[in-house]
Amino acid sequence: MIERSVDNIKGVGPALQEQLETLNIFTVEDLLFFFPSRYDNYQVKPLNELIHDEKATIEGEVIGEPIVTYYGPKKSRLTVHVQVEQVVIKAIMFNRAFAKKHLQPGEMVTLTGKWDQHRLQITVTHYKKGQANVEEPIQPVYSLKQVIKSTTFKKAVHQALEQYYADIVEILPDEFLTEYKLLNRRDAIKEIHFPSEFEMVKQAKRRMIYEELLLFQLKMQQLRKLNRERTTGNSQQYHQEKVTNFIQLLPFELTQAQQRSLSEILTDLKSPYRMHRLLQGDVGSGKTAVAAIILYASITAGNQGALMVPTEILAEQHYQSFVGLFADFGNVELLTGSIKGKKRKESLQRLQNGQIDILIGTHALIQDEVHFAKLGTVVVDEQHRFGVNQRKALRAKGMDPDVLFMTATPIPRTLAITSYGDMDVSQIDQMPIGRKPIETFWVKESMLPRILRFIEKEINQGHQAYVICPLIEESEKLDIQNAVELYHQLQTTLDNKINVGLLHGRLSNEEKEIVMQQYANNELQVLVATTVVEVGVNVPNATVMVVYDAERFGLSQLHQLRGRVGRSDVQSYCILIADPKGDIGKERMRIMTETTNGFELAEQDLELRGPGDFFGKKQSGLPEFQLADIVHDYRALETARNDAQTIIYDEKLENDPKYQALKSYLEKELMEKSTSLD
Ligand code: ADP
Ligand code: MG
């Protein structure tokens, strides 16, 4: 029974048990599944196999007395010559003068450190008298946070394996082991802690990674299935002809991608399942138009709809365009934090009476005081900005409404598969006809005079420009100071017929509103802004986007900003002012100038930044794996997903005895973590 607590392991007393608990290790199983974070390799290699600048272990005979030189208090450098395969190697050690007595001429030593191929020199980090330990050349290194000594920990793991090896049960059905040539669970765990050779560590990890990913995907697929089975009766019987009519009255034809997504969503509405769908599409690809249509469909089914967006500006903007669109089709209202008092009370009353068909707002939509008469469909824009609890609260308001999440941050496929594994995904991967790709340039700040002339030229043709200054995260004050300075600078340097506006986070909503409105009316031709314009602002007449300190933004964020222009059939431009220091930064700027496809950018961003940074740590909501890396192990992830789908779809867990272990494991997991559908 590996579920027993760690004190059942011989040699683990109360003190050690307590220490283990601080590492979240309570049971034997926890201990066995606490994997090393890396391995040190003390395998001696012949000189001709060593790689410059990498870690190496060599074995040889000391020739000549070590020489120690001191520089500064407690700082020393020891130099000794060692003969390895007829070659004299120079070994250097810092601040370890005491080693001198161990490294006397004629002694055999094993040295590990960084190898310098050009100087035939090794900078030693680890040495040992005598020959290398051929028994255990590969040493696992655990992140023990200095709670437990590594040797103590390893001893405990060793003893745990002695006692419980036979109790580690296989959970993958045999056919998987055979098909993918995977180690069995016992041996994999043993190899991970006590590797016999590097190849075996690799194989053991490969097995455990597959297990990790399969279990995760099974959980996701199971949740999805439960979700489908759970809700009956929310079939929204919308009125097809009315919907068609609504679409025909739009000022444009839907793109094929919009039509496809729309039909996927409408199918969800009509079906008894509760919709749990993500609509991905580049900025300007027409997601909001699709949202409007499905919210209307919901109205024709006798229900109310809600559109929840991250900022008040965006709520206002959507509200304006929805009021126009729905003039003859429904009653649209706005609810934000700044609507207060009597006005608010009346609004809430109308909502409860069912007089409001569509409610648009920010987080204000999910406060306790808000009650819908009959909430049918919820659209959440920029969904990754909302926390799990907010989604849950909103959902709890209705009678299990259909929910559509929209995002203009194209999520790379890898992430969509993992973090949204329990969602259906629709994708608008096509821009409305006639859009020209935005031309993007990367320049240094010294080019500013030319940029200003370019802006003037565009404005003389009747167009408008955005100038974005970076968000200085450490200090909102500096941030605003920056924006204000830039604003003044542009005011004085640009042609005095050009009006410049300023938008930043310190302005009141009213002030923001006024500036936005002036910009939308082309009373202001240049808008200097901090990243507040990032989300969703729609001014089709703007053709130039200038981003200061572009290297401080993520690719996806830059792409979002760029999406503020190019919203009509006029050629638009994006100018990135950046002086990145490192290679990655330069690479990112280069990618921006070459790619206008958001999905492609997202993939590249992910590759450069890693998944943890992709959405920003807090919001990532990404599952944490012990071994698997969703970028690197992408192929395994896809395989696991397909396998999980087959297992759930064919109901193997219920019906096939070979899947018994997997089934119990999953049941336990779902119960323990009390995973909710959100
Ligand atoms: P998103 O929400 O994906 O950023 P929007 O729905 O706001 O995109 O659409 C961006 C702009 O394109 C809006 O002005 C909208 O009216 C227009 N638009 C949407 N769909 C089409 C289409 N199929 N053809 C032409 N213009 C469209
Ligand atoms: Mg439904």
TrEMBL record:
Residues 268-428 form the Helicase ATP-binding domain. InterPro entries: ATP-dep_DNA_helicase_RecG, DEAD/DEAH_box_helicase_dom, Helicase_ATP-bd, Helicase_C-like, NA-bd_OB-fold, P-loop_NTPase, RecG/Mfd, RecG_dom3_C. Its EC number is 5.6.2.4. GO terms for biological process: DNA recombination; DNA repair. It is an enzyme of class 5 (isomerase). CDD domains: DEXHc_RecG, RecG_wedge_OBF, SF2_C_RecG. Keywords: ATP-binding, DNA damage, DNA recombination, DNA repair, DNA-binding, Helicase, Hydrolase, Isomerase, Nucleotide-binding. SMART domains: DEXDc, HELICc. It catalyses: ATP + H2O = ADP + phosphate + H(+); Couples ATP hydrolysis with the unwinding of duplex DNA by translocating in the 3'-5' direction. One of its GO terms (molecular function) is 3'-5' DNA helicase activity. Gene3D superfamilies: Nucleic acid-binding proteins, P-loop containing nucleotide triphosphate hydrolases. The keyword Plastid does not apply. Residues 447-607 form the Helicase C-terminal domain. Plays a critical role in recombination and DNA repair. Helps process Holliday junction intermediates to mature products by catalyzing branch migration. Has replication fork regression activity, unwinds stalled or blocked replication forks to make a HJ that can be resolved. Has a DNA unwinding activity characteristic of a DNA helicase with 3'-5' polarity. Belongs to the helicase family. RecG subfamily. NCBIfam families: PRK10917.1-3, PRK10917.2-2, recG. This is ATP-dependent DNA helicase RecG. It comes from Natronobacillus azotifigens. The gene is recG.
